[in-house]
Design brief:
Blueprint: E1 3-5, E2 12-14, E3 16-19, H1 29-41, E4 46-48, H2 64-73, E5 82-87, H3 108-122, E6 127-132, H4 141-153, E7 157-163, H5 167-180, E8 185-189, H6 203-210, E9 213-214, H7 239-246, H8 248-257, H9 260-275, H10 280-289, E10 297-299, H11 307-311, H12 320-332
Parallel strand pairs: 3-4, 3-10, 4-5, 5-6, 6-7, 7-8, 8-9
Antiparallel strand pairs: 1-2
Length: 338
Amino acid sequence: MKHKRLGKSPIYVSDICMGTMTFGTQADEKMSLRILDQSVDAGINFIDTAENYPVPPDVKWVGRTEEIVGRWLKTKDRDAIILATKVCGPSHGWVTASQRAGMTAMDRHNITRAIEASLKRLGTDYIDLYQTHWPDHGTGYDETMEILDELVLAGKVRVIGCSNESSWGLMKSLEASSRLGAARYQTIQNNFSLNNRRFEDELAQVCRHEGVSLIPYSPLAGGVLSGKYQNGQTPHGARFSRYIEMGGRQAVMSQRFVNEKSLASTERFMAIAAEAEMSVVTLATAWSKQHDFVASTIVGVSHENQLPEIFAASDLVLDDSVMKAINKVTREILYPMG
């Protein structure tokens, strides 16, 4: 397992990160612990969670994922694990957080309450990478960056990052940090996959020039790139099968991930993987890692039997012919996820 630096920070992480958003819903605690143990055995030292997990967000189980990770962490050498978690963004837009009665924001009050609760659930006195889960452009970046800087100075957080951020927001935050002499975002965690390459349009250039690392989530496009939704299939228990049944925001999200264009591109990526004698899961994971602006690719599973195809990408470098075939699909099926 290769290791890369997070932004300009002193922290190096495995280039595959284990995400935990299924822990406590799709994966029960016993399965979650097995997934974490096998990840460490495979060389992964980077674990990502959030105060709003597991998904879909619900007050009945909010915080359960951090609690599971915290119990697992007690069995490990804390210094050997790079632990990331997130504070909820504002709840007056697309996402309503299950924390703090849905009254979340990126102000001093919310961030202070969030970090204390996460530290308690995780059973640790510091977070290696603390991230804003989604931006709060209305609050303004000065207050957000100031309180995050105070957490770094207090030793509760080592470095900070953002998630689901725009080019404008990332640059505004970096400007605020520079002007205030405060800690800066070292990472950005955004959606990035073979089916969603929008990050390359602008944000990749921001990362390159500003020394910020992408730690992409959903490299399998929410599981779509595994092929399990091909030919109209809606597998029982699968994420978007459940989301379609739930309706509302979840159903809208499922349409973005599972649609005619995304299924067409997935079919072609599956053919490329077969020609290269690997699974499409391995192909998609390796492709995500093979970018200069990516530090670590966040993967997620609900069962341990999904791990081998991911781990197979650990030391894999896709050759030029495979990369050219992938880029041809991208050119011919533009923006499958809109």
